[in-house]
């Protein structure tokens, strides 16, 4: 009998709440309707009576304990490594509070809470392996058991993609208020792509608005572009960031530590990803081709355009020209922008030129890519490279930036070296390695010795579907665009 009474009470309370909300909504639109006001007042009075009884009973008993499971984070990942816990047992958490950081072989993910409550149990230690679909933590919720049961019903495999919106992919803990997260969600912006300018890297409302303005292609005053520069050290956080301050100081070599003991540790994260990728690349017969490019005209052109780009808040390097020239070449040789299936039976020609750039970051060698280069200008590419480099410096490159590449350039010359033997990144079929730019003597058309800015390029191609002649013709076209950059204007879209 008591169960029937309790069930009837629950149904009546839900019906009353529904009527109250609908009538209050009508009340906001028709304030002159005194009949609706009277009904709303009576409904509100009854609701307060029921709420007071419910509140009195909730203080006696605590909420149920919910097992918060690790949902699918995409890319076919089934297990991750717990890198850091942001909470401990007994801590109180709210919705969207960060719980822990996990790392897969593709990216790092910060897991946030879906509930308000108290952490009762952590299922894994630091460096432990967590499985997708298994409990991560137990949370003693503050919600009623009926609400939790409804949430449990909604939490089905079909909703795994929706739950993933609360698990922002990035390199470290992202801090943002619910209002900022809501603003980002309404504008289809991933917090992993936004660099926070607030204290401790907190993402502010201004950061979302500035990011949105950049995505729309609007020209923003230089003062609003300070957030895309490399973050200053903590001791200089209060100092204004200038153009000269963005120059990297000379690298310092740490003192080697000699322990006298052998150390064995498991491969994790990106190191394990490199093992898988290079093992797959070993199955590809590589064809190598090298050439040199005279960048003297490009050096002069960049010197003219650099102050204009900096006036718009973007640092202009040589890479946007290299990337755009590669995209123009891929239009003539689409087989270099393709992929081969595992059975080597079908070839897929990619419509988008998602050109990757091998980048040396604090997390290791990563290859983020610039999406749809065929639709971008040189300035657009430079702007996107600035964003990727900032994310890489901060350790915030996520799955969106690291996946979907179709062609890769490796700028090994930024560190040193003239030639390289680049390894193809499956399922891509070609990659290029760029050496350092050197001032060397060369003969001009009149036979006179002149100063020339020479860069060597090393190509690798999948010899199963790409022959040497194709690779050579592509390289010649790419070189012509760079040696005569004015010719790129004819083919720019």
Automatic annotation (TrEMBL):
Residues in Lipoyl-binding domain copies: 65-140
E.C. designation(s): 2.3.1.-
Any one annotated GO CC term: mitochondrial matrix
Record keywords, A-Z: Acetylation, Acyltransferase, Lipoyl, Mitochondrion, Phosphoprotein, Transferase, Transit peptide
InterPro entries: 2-oxoA_DH_lipoyl-BS, 2-oxoacid_DH_actylTfrase, 2-oxoacid_DH_E2_comp, Biotin_lipoyl, CAT-like_dom_sf, E3-bd_dom_sf, PSBD, Single_hybrid_motif
UniProt xrefs under CDD domains: lipoyl_domain
Region annotated Disordered, chain positions: 233-262
Low complexity bias: start-end ranges: 235-247
Domain Peripheral subunit-binding (PSBD): 175-212
Catalytic activity: N(6)-[(R)-dihydrolipoyl]-L-lysyl-[protein] + 2-methylpropanoyl-CoA = N(6)-[(R)-S(8)-2-methylpropanoyldihydrolipoyl]-L-lysyl-[protein] + CoA
Keyword Transit peptide on entry: yes
Molecular function terms from GO: acetyltransferase activity; dihydrolipoamide branched chain acyltransferase activity; lipoic acid binding
Function: The branched-chain alpha-keto dehydrogenase complex catalyzes the overall conversion of alpha-keto acids to acyl-CoA and CO(2). It contains multiple copies of three enzymatic components: branched-chain alpha-keto acid decarboxylase (E1), lipoamide acyltransferase (E2) and lipoamide dehydrogenase (E3). Within this complex, the catalytic function of this enzyme is to accept, and to transfer to coenzyme A, acyl groups that are generated by the branched-chain alpha-keto acid decarboxylase component.
Record-stated family: Belongs to the 2-oxoacid dehydrogenase family.
Protein name as annotated: Dihydrolipoamide acetyltransferase component of pyruvate dehydrogenase complex
Organism, scientific name: Zoarces viviparus
């Amino acid at each position: 009998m008591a169960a029937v009474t309790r069930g009837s009470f629950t149904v009546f309370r839900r019906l009353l709440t529904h009527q109250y909300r609908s009538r209050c909504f009508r009340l906001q639109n028709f304030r002159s309707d005194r009949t609706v006001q009277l009904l709303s007042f009576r409904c509100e009075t009854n609701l307060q009576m029921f709420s007071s009884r419910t509140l009195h009973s909730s203080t006696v008993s605590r909420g149920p304990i919910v097992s918060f499971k690790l949902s699918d984070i995409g890319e076919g990942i089934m297990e991750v490594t717990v890198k850091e816990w942001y909470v401990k047992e007994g801590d109180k958490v709210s919705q969207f509070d960060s719980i822990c950081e996990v790392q897969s072989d593709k990216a790092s993910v910060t897991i946030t809470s879906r509930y308000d409550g108290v952490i009762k149990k952590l299922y894994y230690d630091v460096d432990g392996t967590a499985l997708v679909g298994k409990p991560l933590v137990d949370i003693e919720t503050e919600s009623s058991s009926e609400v939790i049961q409804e949430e449990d019903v909604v939490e089905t495999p079909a909703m795994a993609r929706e739950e993933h919106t609360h698990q922002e992919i990035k390199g470290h803990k992202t801090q943002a208020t619910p209002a900022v997260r809501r603003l980002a969600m309404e504008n289809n912006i991933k917090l992993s792509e936004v660099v926070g300018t607030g204290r401790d890297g907190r993402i502010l409302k201004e950061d979302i608005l500035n990011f949105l303005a950049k995505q729309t292609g609007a020209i923003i005053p230089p003062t609003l572009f300070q957030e895309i520069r490399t973050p200053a050290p903590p001791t200089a956080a209060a100092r204004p960031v200038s153009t000269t301050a963005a120059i990297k100081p000379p690298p310092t070599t740490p003192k080697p530590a000699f322990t006298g003991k052998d150390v064995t540790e498991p491969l994790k994260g990106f190191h394990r990803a490199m093992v898988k990728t290079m093992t797959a690349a070993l199955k590809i017969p590589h064809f190598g081709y090298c050439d040199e490019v005279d960048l003297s005209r490009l050096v002069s052109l960049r010197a003219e355009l650099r102050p204009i780009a900096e006036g718009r808040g973007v640092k202009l390097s040589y890479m946007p020209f290299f990337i755009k020239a590669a995209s123009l070449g891929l239009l003539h040789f689409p087989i270099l922008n393709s992929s081969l299936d595992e059975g080597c039976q079908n070839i897929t020609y990619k419509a988008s030129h998602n050109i990757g750039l091998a980048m040396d970051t604090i997390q290791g060698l990563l290859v983020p890519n610039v999406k749809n280069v065929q639709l971008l200008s040189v300035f657009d590419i430079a702007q996107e490279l600035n964003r990727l480099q900032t994310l890489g410096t901060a350790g915030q490159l996520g799955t969106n930036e690291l996946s979907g590449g179709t062609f890769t350039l490796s700028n090994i010359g930024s560190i040193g070296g003239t030639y390289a033997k680049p390894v193809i990144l499956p399922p891509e079929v070609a990659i290029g390695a760029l050496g350092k730019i050197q001032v060397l003597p060369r003969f001009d058309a009149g036979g006179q010795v002149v100063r020339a800015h020479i860069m060597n390029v090393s190509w690798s191609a999948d010899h199963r579907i790409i022959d040497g002649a194709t690779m050579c013709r592509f390289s010649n076209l790419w070189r012509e665009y760079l040696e005569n950059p004015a010719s790129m204007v004819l083919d720019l879209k």
